[in-house]
Amino acid sequence: MSMLRLDGVTVRFGERAVLDAVDLDVAEHETVCVLGPSGSGKSTLLRVVAGLQRPDAGRVFLAGEDQGGVPVHKRGVGLMFQDHQLFPQRDVAGNVGFGLRMRRAGRAETERRVAALLDLVGLPNAQRRAVAALSGGEQQRVALARALAPEPRLLMLDEPLGQLDRGLRERLVAELRELFRRLGTTVLAVTHDQGEAFALADRVVVMRDGRIAQSGTPLEVWQRPASEFVARFLGFDNIVEATVSGERADTVWGRVPVPAGTPGGVCRVLVRPAGVRLGAVGEGVPCGVVSRTFRGDHVAVRLRPDAGPELEAVCRLGEAPEPAARVGVRFDAAEVVVLR
Ligand SMILES: Nc1ncnc2c1ncn2[C@@H]1O[C@H](COP(=O)(O)OP(=O)(O)OP(=O)(O)O)[C@@H](O)[C@H]1O
């Protein structure tokens, strides 16, 4: 069953459609991450679902019920925004228990729930701490506990880990995923950070100018970006025009193998960096090595072919050629994607 359904939702500011007839389903217990560049409409999407922004057209359903005219506080959704807006004058317990008191939960009940939630987010016994004295990561956890406290049927996160440094972010993403799985929470998150989206989501939705450019599991979107826009947004830049005939494509880089069944004619092809194989000069496309960048478990190598755009390759540590060296490049069919 769909926990959330958007049906042709459009929001205009003046002439411009910031959301343009968006259809989206989020199943119960599913975590969907909406990803896209700045200004693509991600926050507006959350605001419409929360009831903070009225759509100019289309409808929002929560658990099958049309939310037209339903005010924010009656929608049963939890919100955690970018700047997490904790109440600075209240302590941690005052923040986490806020929504429970709004629902007139008794004092003992509130205390019990607050303690359980703080355990859950990894801040046991933090009730009396002042929020101003917490680190960014701790504040984020308090904001999460506060959003979860009223047991929302849908939890919405806007750039949930935006402010945090990378190490903490990676740890929290893993913890959040496990937490949502354990609680069975349905989550709609928006982020401009693809790493975060891919790590957190069961399904990724990529937006462009108020429309959905692609929707799929992280693996599907990563392996088969649907368009040049999505491919470039994911950081893939080895893209070139190609003329396909049979299982080969002619490009300015020379011949690139394409999957059997690819329709003939002119298109764009992407070669993922893992499919750019380096060999000796004279084998394949001659290229000069422009630079190499250490990336932890591999080295990214930039190559300049004699013609056409630069190429990125990945090499194992210790196997990357020196800058200014000459190499020959071959393309691996398994890493070639034909873009529509
Ligand atoms: N109240 C408003 N009035 C006019 N324009 C608005 C309003 N709210 C948002 N916009 C515009 O709508 C577009 C989409 O905004 P939105 O905040 O949804 O994008 P976003 O994808 O969340 O971007 P970011 O990643 O930067 O937060 C932007 O161009 C923004 O300037």
Automatic annotation (TrEMBL):
The keyword Transport is annotated on this UniProt entry: yes
Signal peptide: none
Limits of the ABC transporter domain: 4-234
GO cellular component entries: ATP-binding cassette (ABC) transporter complex
InterPro entries referenced in this protein's UniProt entry, alphabetically: AAA+_ATPase (IPR003593), ABC_SmlMolc_Importer (IPR050093), ABC_transporter-like_ATP-bd (IPR003439), ABC_transporter-like_CS (IPR017871), Mo/tungstate-bd_C_term_dom (IPR008995), P-loop_NTPase (IPR027417), Transp-assoc_OB_typ2 (IPR013611)
Family matches, as Pfam families: ABC_tran, TOBE_2
Lineage: Bacteria, Bacillati, Actinomycetota, Actinomycetes, Kitasatosporales
PROSITE patterns assigned to the protein according to its UniProt record, in alphabetical order: ABC_TRANSPORTER_1, ABC_TRANSPORTER_2
Name by which UniProt lists this protein: ABC-type quaternary amine transporter
Organism: Streptomyces morookaense
GO-annotated molecular function: ABC-type quaternary ammonium compound transporting activity; ATP binding; ATP hydrolysis activity
Keyword terms of this UniProt record: ATP-binding, Nucleotide-binding, Transport
Parts of the chain that traverse the membrane: none
EC number: 7.6.2.9
SMART domains for this protein: AAA
